[in-house]
């Protein structure tokens, strides 16, 4: 499923979600079910300790080219250069920030991250492999 069928030069109009990182199965990349100690993949049955969970980027965008508007989702390590760290390291950083602040309300951190991502992507033109 990694084969590119075509290229699309388009501008990012908006970010469609505020959840840029998700716990991902190392076998099939599906979203993991996490509890405080364990994780499991409902798709392939992979399990392990929660501290060993892998994370992956998932960025849903609304983009536009000369022919119209499109919804597109960008997955994986191709986003590492834009975030400056791997998805696992970004998740660790967010968790550490939450613990250090002692805040139970993580809304300010989430809002700051969303604003940073919007600044990086909205209004910019990229070439997407589809």
From TrEMBL:
Pfam families: Rep_fac-A_C. One of its GO terms (cellular component) is nucleus. It comes from the Eukaryota. Residues 9-95 form the Replication factor A C-terminal domain. GO terms for biological process: negative regulation of intrinsic apoptotic signaling pathway in response to DNA damage. Gene3D superfamilies: Nucleic acid-binding proteins. This is DDIAS protein. It comes from Anthoscopus minutus (Southern penduline-tit).
